[in-house]
Amino acid sequence: MNLNITLLIEVASFALLLFILTKLLYKPVLELLDKRSKNVEKMLNESQRSREEADQKAKNAQDALDRARREIIEMKESARLETDEARKSILDKAREESRMYLEFSKKELEKEAGKIKKGIRDQVADFSIFIAEKILKREITKKDQAAFLEKTLKEMEREDRT
Questions:
Q1: What is the pLDDT of residues 49-68, one digit of tens each?
Q2: Residues 66-93: pLDDT tens digits?
Q3: 64-100 as b/e, with b when 16 or more CB fall inside 10 Å?
Q4: Which helix (H) or strand (E) is 35 found in, with range?
Q5: C-alpha to C-alpha distance for 80 and 159, rounded to whole angstroms
Q6: Using an 8 Å Cβ cutoff, are 133 and 139 in contact?
Q7: Is 125 within 8 Å of 145 (Cβ atoms)?
Q8: Nearest-CA neighbor of 156 among 132, 130, 133, 123?
Q9: What whole-number distance in Å separates Cα of residue 147 and Cα of residue 45?
Q10: pLDDT band (50, 70, 90) for residue 22
Q11: 133 to each of 82, 99, 107, how far by Cα in Å?
């Protein structure tokens, strides 16, 4: 019987100890672990949400960067085309102005050459008449003057050609 009472006391004291440990230690530890688990889960969820937000922001930034690059490429191409058109327009205008100036210069030179030739003819005619008068000691008529002038001009033209 002694053994039964001791066994009973040991079982009772173990049950009491188990009850006390459960109430005082096990439940608070479980609550603490549960709190910690919920806190870790909350932090993981927040971390996942933050990562998703960061990924979304990175994607948006990359999209904006890609759009900006495309716009820059389009702007560069547009500027290049405008520059090419402006350069072509300026060159065409310069060519046209140079052609017109050259044409004008040729006409002016032809006019001046005609004036100079006429002046030389007149001077040669006058000089020829003067010399002829001196040589012949008489006055030359208009008919003689015209014939002599025509002959002299023909000779001058032949000399100009050679």
A1: 999 999 999 999 999 999 99
A2: 999 999 999 999 999 999 999 999 999 9
A3: eeeeeeeeeeeeeeeeeeeeeeeeeeeeeeeeeeeee
A4: helix 27-136
A5: 59
A6: yes
A7: yes
A8: 123
A9: 122
A10: confident
A11: 75, 50, 38
Amino acid identity, position 64: A
Which position has the token pair 């004291």? 13
Please give the structure tokens belonging to residue 130.
Answer: 């003067």
The domain ranges of the chain are 47-161
Among all chains, which residue has been given the structure tokens 């402006």?
A: 86
Cα dihedral 61, 63, 66, 72 sign: negative
What six digits make up the tokens of 2? 């002694």
- Tokens for 134, please give them: 């001196």
pTM given for the model: 0.42
Contact 145/129 with Cβ under 8 angstroms? Answer: yes
DSSP 137: T
